[in-house]
Amino acid sequence: MKRCTASLIGFVFIALALASVFSAQEYVSLVKRALDDSSFHWRSFEAEDVRLFYKPDSFAERHRVMLVRSAKASVEEVLKFLGEPGYDRILHVFYVDTRKEMDRIIGRPVAGYADWTGSGVFLVLNPEWRSFDTHEITHVLSMSLWGTPDPTSRWMVEGVAVSCDGWCQEYSVDEIASYLLSQDQLPPLHELFRNFAELGEIRAGFYAASVIGFVRNRYGPDALRDLWMNGSGDLSGSLGSTIDEIEASWKKYLKETAGNEIQIDLENIEELECG
Ligand SMILES: [Zn+2]
Questions:
Q1: Strands (E) located in 148-263
Q2: Which domain holds residue 107?
Q3: Separation of CA 67 and ligand 1 centre (Å)
Q4: Which band of pLDDT confidence, cut at 50, 70 and 90, is reported for residue 10?
Q5: Do 127 and 186 lie in a common domain?
Q6: What is the pTM of this model?
Q7: Scanning 118, 135, 174, 213, which has the fewest C-beta atoms within 10 Å of its C-beta?
Q8: What's the CA-to-centroid distance between 174 and ligand 1, angstroms?
Q9: Model confidence over 187-236: pLDDT tens digits?
């Protein structure tokens, strides 16, 4: 999650920068660039609208049937979370063994990456590292179906992906948020909205994800989409409550879903991330 957060923010910037420099015709997606790179000797496997790409004799190749089923299940799960009926593009799912190989494709040694323009995700997967399929697929679907969020709802981009993925190591999103809250590590909600980038990836990611899960649970996916598109400046429009009321309701919900007894080794999460 940690690497991925940085990669996401980076990609938003890169995509916007490229869009302003090149016309749509000249822009080459990372999916196309990866497919054009013959040094990977990609093999592929597909089921309906999901197409996997992996290297010969890789861990991913050996598990391709399970992986394609898992990717399809992720698409369904994410669509349900977003309240959307479908995604009408082919989804390209690339697996590599190492971050070094990701560096060759993306330009940085990240664990996961989403290229929604090209409808593709790039994932590190090996016997010691679980891939963030659902997380990255959420980025592709949310950005493709809902568009770029209102500037006041940029905090939601990573939060929706973390919320859909749902867990980190053996902990649920709400358990981590509850622990952070119990340690006085979460500022008031308005600070998350305005300064999410300054909270750090762990605090901002799990705080946002937990609040998004609460909003989805209490108000439904339409309210979530409304918040994404129309902004977080005035919650009374989207949610019919003030920001202080939402924060109080979320804290109550968190106590019910996660309790406040759990102990979490945050240093371990910082060091080993969520893989
Ligand atoms: Zn992400």
A1: 167-168, 171-172
A2: 2-145
A3: 20
A4: very low
A5: no
A6: 0.89
A7: 118
A8: 18
A9: 999 999 999 989 988 899 999 999 999 999 999 999 999 999 999 988 88
